[in-house]
Q: What sequence folds into this?
């Protein structure tokens, strides 16, 4: 079980380690060329530093493509399986269902609920359908629907939901319609929110396309998607970390190349930590609504570029 856990966790480690590997490889490569005066010979032959760095930039783009493929195909399912195995090892029942997969619920009175999404923060359901049956569930007695329903518990009635754009259809045993009523606002008596609440979808368990579609569907329902948008921008920007790390590493390696490879590795670790801190700080600012989600990744890159100029000076 431990071996399976580490196997499913391996893509996440690759996802985090690969940018640092590209940074250190660029630092050591240029540092060794500078220390052995090979870079001076290349410049004397008319080969510019940009041309020397071109193969490393190509490798960085390849590594960035690998990160995006991992994010789109492998990372989410692997993290989900690793989390399930970790729960079992900790003696906790694994959460095999979440808000993306659990859309059918059976109520305590025998009714069946189907919904598109559940917002645990606001106790709101989107696209909720309620199927009520006759005694013994021999036939469908009523079907009710609401585009949006929010739990508004009252004293002694914790299962009252305020529904918007709702309709209800009562059916005869033959299946014909007995009565149909449509209302802009109505009150539904449903199960309490705890019946629908499962683990909320986490961006680390979703691919870029899944998270993008999820955000689009939530936005149409009026949900607050600022945190999900920030996570989406992080997924889109993180594969470019390898290219940014390479562009940062080349001038640093030329400046500090004669001090040895270990010095370059130390500088690389400092740069990597600085970038990650800036990345996390601007992501937190975006989640808090201080800056737009698109500006989060731009701000992180600008801060690192300023740090690079300080180091170079």
A:
């Amino acid at each position: 079980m431990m071996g399976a856990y580490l196997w499913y966790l391996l893509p996440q480690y690759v996802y985090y380690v690969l940018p640092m590997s590209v940074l250190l490889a660029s630092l050591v490569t240029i540092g060794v060329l500078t220390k052995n005066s090979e870079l001076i010979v290349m410049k004397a032959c008319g080969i510019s530093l940009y041309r020397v760095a071109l193969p490393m930039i190509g490798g960085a783009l390849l590594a960035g493509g690998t990160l995006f493929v991992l994010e789109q195909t492998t990372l989410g399912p692997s993290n989900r399986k690793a989390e399930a195995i970790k729960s079992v090892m900790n003696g906790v029942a694994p959460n095999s269902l979440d808000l993306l997969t659990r859309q059918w619920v059976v109520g305590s009175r025998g009714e069946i609920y189907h919904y598109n999404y559940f917002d645990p923060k606001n106790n709101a359901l989107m696209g909720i359908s309620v199927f009520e049956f006759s005694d013994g569930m021999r036939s469908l007695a009523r079907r009710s629907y609401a585009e949006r329903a929010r739990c508004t518990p009252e004293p002694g009635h914790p299962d009252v939901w305020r529904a918007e754009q709702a309709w209800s259809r009562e059916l005869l045993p033959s299946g014909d319609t007995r009565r149909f009523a449509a209302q802009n606002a109505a009150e539904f008596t449903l199960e309490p929110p705890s019946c629908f609440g499962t683990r909320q979808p986490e961006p680390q368990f979703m691919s870029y396309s899944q998270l993008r579609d999820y955000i689009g569907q939530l936005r149409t329902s009026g949900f607050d998607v600022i945190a999900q948008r920030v996570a989406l921008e992080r997924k889109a920007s993180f594969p470019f970390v390898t290219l940014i790390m390479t562009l940062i590493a080349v001038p640093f390696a030329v400046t500090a190349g004669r001090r040895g490879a270990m010095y370059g590795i130390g500088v690389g670790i400092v740069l990597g930590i600085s970038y990650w801190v800036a990345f996390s700080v601007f992501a937190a600012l975006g989640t808090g609504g201080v800056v737009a989600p698109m500006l989060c990744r731009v701000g992180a890159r600008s801060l690192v570029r300023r740090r690079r100029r300080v180091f170079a000076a």
